[in-house]
């Protein structure tokens, strides 16, 4: 039976692993006949972490709609963009307008917390997902801890992995651990066309703390493989100059 699903998450044109996973999961569910709505605010991200000339998923994708809040919020004191509140307001409207059955949030800050508030206001089934940095920077240090703890404890399902199972098990009885993410084979299968030299590519954002993402190891490995592979790095971010 097809479901009506909403994703509140990072999503292209926002870069990064969470955005990529949300993109492919939303497309995969839409391709299987589910009605999928994506609520995001990628256009407000800094230029260094936004895909150039991309406003998200192509409009021709069947069963998939992308919603973004207004880009301008009326000026007020204290001055703030209020994107979190704009996302929450939009999420509630999408849930009610499209009779959403499942709200899937893909990073605790702010999406998971906003999803929890939307659940409390609408009663929608709430699935919480996380990355790595939100658990390391926020949950473990209890930054915004009260809201994060409540979000996890009251979620209808918390999707994680074996690495964080011990951390999350005391917080929720609705924990589901999934295997590692696997990209869509139809999109990422190499062609059979012969090439004089194999190509090795690293694609992604390059943060100012890029060493913490193990990119320095990748750079060293690629240096040693230049005779065997044609090595490509496709990315952008505040750490690009140092990485180069």
TrEMBL record:
InterPro entries: Glyco_trans_4-like_N. Gene3D superfamilies: Glycogen Phosphorylase B. SUPFAM superfamilies: UDP-Glycosyltransferase/glycogen phosphorylase. Residues 16-163 form the Glycosyltransferase subfamily 4-like N-terminal domain. Pfam families: Glyco_trans_4_4. This is Glycosyltransferase subfamily 4-like N-terminal domain-containing protein. The lineage of its organism: unclassified sequences, metagenomes, ecological metagenomes.
């Amino acid at each position: 039976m097809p479901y009506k699903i909403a994703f509140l998450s990072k999503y292209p044109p926002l870069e990064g692993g969470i955005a990529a996973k949300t993109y492919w999961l939303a497309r995969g569910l839409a391709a299987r006949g589910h009605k999928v709505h994506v609520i995001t605010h990628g256009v407000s991200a800094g230029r260094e972490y936004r895909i150039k000339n991309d406003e998200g998923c192509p409009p021709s994708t069947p069963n998939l709609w992308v919603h973004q809040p207004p880009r301008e919020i009326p000026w007020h004191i204290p001055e703030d963009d209020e994107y979190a509140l704009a996302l929450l307001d939009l999420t509630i409207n999408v849930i009610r307008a499209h009779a959403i059955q499942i709200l899937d949030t893909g990073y605790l800050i702010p999406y998971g917390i906003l999803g929890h508030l939307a659940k409390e206001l609408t009663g929608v089934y709430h699935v919480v997902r996380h990355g790595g940095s939100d658990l390391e920077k926020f949950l473990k240090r209890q930054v915004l801890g009260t809201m994060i703890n409540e979000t996890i404890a009251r979620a209808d399902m918390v999707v994680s992995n074996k690495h964080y199972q011990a951390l999350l098990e005391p917080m929720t009885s609705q924990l589901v651990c999934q295997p590692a993410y696997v990209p869509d084979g139809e999109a990422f299968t190499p062609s059979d066309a012969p090439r004089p030299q194999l190509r090795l590519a690293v694609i992604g954002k390059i943060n100012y703390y890029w060493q913490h993402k193990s990119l320095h190891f990748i750079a060293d490995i690629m240096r040693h493989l230049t005779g065997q592979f044609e090595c490509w790095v496709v990315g952008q971010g505040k750490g690009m100059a140092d990485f180069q």
